[in-house]
Amino acid sequence: MKLLLLLGGTSEARALAKRLHPDVELISSLAGRVPDPALPVGAVRIGGFGGVAGLRTYLQDNEITAVVDATHPFAANITANAAQACAAVGVPHLVLARPAWPHGDAIVVADDRHAAQTVKDHGYQRVFLTTGRSGTTAFRTSDAWFLIRAVTPPEPETLPPHHEILLSRGPYGYDNELALLRDHRIDALVTKNSGGSMTRAKLDAAAALKIPVIMVDRPPLPAGVATVATVDDAAEWVRAR
Q: Band of the pLDDT at 35, cuts 50, 70, 90?
């Protein structure tokens, strides 16, 4: 392994960078959408690549010899771009995809628009919305009241008429999530199936209070990509290059 590009921004990406550094030379790439991000060890670049063509050029100009995509499960654009760019230039490519949460009794929907329609169809009135700052647009005409949790504030024009913004970054504990749902008299939780332990507690709290969960399903991974589910497996893949 000469130079690894690690597409990051997740706790798994930071753990993988820590596991490999300094034995493996790597560059971690962050999208730059979150102010003051948690930085991994080693070299870091921040910002986009300019689509498939830009990423392909970056791989060639920097003589990248392998790519690990450890981005968020809903970062579908960069995941698709990485798969195409790596295939075009023949660079080994791996997706580190944390396991999804079990659906359980959740109402599973394909996207934010279907989640908003489900809220309307079921008549939910006080909704805990945890789909991130980009997930509010589909709800902007809803009559319900929303507690919207995000790392950075959504754009005002994307917000529903009745809401409260809670700026916060995980991990979140069960007791606090339970109190949050109770105190705000939440009658439905809308979330993405992000997986992982950092934000799992809201599902457990909702289950304890018998609050319905509307869960946006993950976008599919590009066909044919190699995937692993753990940092250990990703590190083993890298060291085998």
A: confident
Joined tokens for residue 13: 């990406």
pLDDT for residue 1:
65
CB 136 within 8 A of CB 159: yes
Fold that domain 4-99+219-239 belongs to in CATH: Rossmann fold (3.40.50)
Single-letter code of the amino acid located at 30? L
Task: Give the domain ranges of the chain.
Answer: 4-99+219-239, 107-216
SS3 95: strand
Query: Strands, E, within 31-177: which ranges?
Result: 43-46, 66-69, 93-96, 107-109, 126-130, 145-150, 162-167
% residues pLDDT > 70 (the chain): 100
Q: How does DSSP assign 7-70, residue by residue?
A: E--SHHHHHHHHHHTTTS-EEEEE---SSSPPPPSSEEEES---HHHHHHHHHHHTT--EEEE-
* CATH number for region 107-216: 3.40.50.150
| pTM reported for the whole predicted model | 0.91
